[in-house]
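G.,

No rush on this.
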Amino acid sequence: MGPKIELNYVVSVRDDAASGKVQVTLDRSGTLWLTDRELADELATSLKDGELVAVEYVDQAKQIREVFPPVVDRIVALSEAGPEEPVEVQAMKRPSLLELRRDHPRFDELYEFLKECHRDKAETALAVFPGSRPIQDARLLSDKPK
């Protein structure tokens, strides 16, 4: 199975001296690991600031590969889901279109969620690799754990 990308709030970041790794607990993805100290510092800052982050990780190894900030915006337009074409998503503050591809493993779930966000004019966090268009995950900004 390939890498997963999910939007998460950081619950904890701690060094595991025995393994030489950093253990990161996330509100949705659970406990993951990393060896990159720079990424660990980034996640510790996100924890301190209460910021949402997009995390790419290898599911079976539970190893974090990359962390990046989400696109936070309101969805102003959403195309219909055709049989083969990606759904085009226009965010308010972003000049270029984003897209939800049909081959995304959670296409139906994410498409319904994006339609709700558009209807409700909700501030939405979108996991989109910097410089790219495909949406990997989506979450309401107000969906912060207590």
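When you get to it, here's the other one too:
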Amino acid sequence: MKKVPLPFTDKGVFFIAISQFGASFSYNFIMVFMPFYILKISALGPKETMIWTGLIIGAPSAMNALTAPLWGRLTSRYRPKLLFELGILWNGILFLVFGFVQNLYLLFLLRVLLGVMGGVSTVGLILMSAVTPEERLHKDISLYQITMTIGQLIAPPIGAYMITLVGYRFSFIIGSFIFFLFFILCHHNVKDIPCQKTVRDSAQKLKKGIIWGWVLGLIGTVHITYLPGILPHILENFQLKEERALSYAGIIMTAYTITAILGNFMINNFIPRTKLRRVILYIGLSAAFLQAIMYFGKGVVSFTLIRMLQTGVIAAVFPMILSVFATGVGGGTLGFLNSARFAGNAIGPLMATSVVAYSNLLTLYLLISSLTLIPLTGFLRATRISPSRMSPSRMSPSRIGPSGEQEECFPVAKDPGLRGKN
């Protein structure tokens, strides 16, 4: 009987991807009620509580961006699967502790630690890169990102419902249970791989390509994340009052999140790897154009349609950028590229609210559009020669010490086949 081809390389890739769905779901599951939980346990005044609310909510994204490269570098010393499982496990433990915290300062510290553990998503990308054939790597990385986006989409309404049903403590416990569940699934279904090679002295052109790729990934993420903070202002311009504006805001955000998922899937799954750079060019130009003309969406319907098209194309660019480099760089560099996503999550809303506060929507739209074209040009110029030809070969399961001799990977593999590769 003929086997039906799977939309991913093997079951390990699938479970790595859905583990990120679990993480994304849990993060956004608690995010919807976190501000209310902070108000409940705060012993400070309104202004101080407001400041600490921003710090507590924003801390994980900032730490994600800072620690993602570190998690990548650790894969040259410790087995990636072990790191991935430890990261998931500690996320679950921290979620469990959240439900018993009654102090804002302790909650802030725990959220900082949560951000440190969140950088483990880089290790998931490394695991995926090691088992995926180069020609379909962008497709599997797309699946990885799509599962996270789905988690972001469906978690808030479920979290809002659960908080009314079981209260804060049990809601945190539910989030913790999700992490423990995916820890078990990954432990049994994800393949162990050897420590990854520490890549040194990459070609200068490759270094430039990585930097431009990081900036392009950051701006691509800004495209997706900037809108919610200014959406009330936009809907006010459409003469919508608060109650109707709230309803339309939910519809708009859901609509463009769905097109981001569909666009990411469709573009990455039907484009061969040999045409990635050309498609990145078309995506960048289309997203910049749609961003610029968003100002001319003079009603809710036209504005929403333009926004849906914009997110539908730009969502596909980040998996493509990662797949361009993933087979020719070390874990630290892959972590650096992955950190662009976290930085974009933090910068997008701040950029939007700041520009609109001191200028207007047209300035914001043109700024984002212009900032898209600059790294797009730099990235395409720096990657004219493919990374696989400019750099060492696909990440290798070895670690070379200062003396030039091979160093041990921890822990030592029980699988003789894996041990032999070290």
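The chain is about 75% helix and 0% strand. The chain has a mean pLDDT of 78.

Enjoy the weekend,
O.
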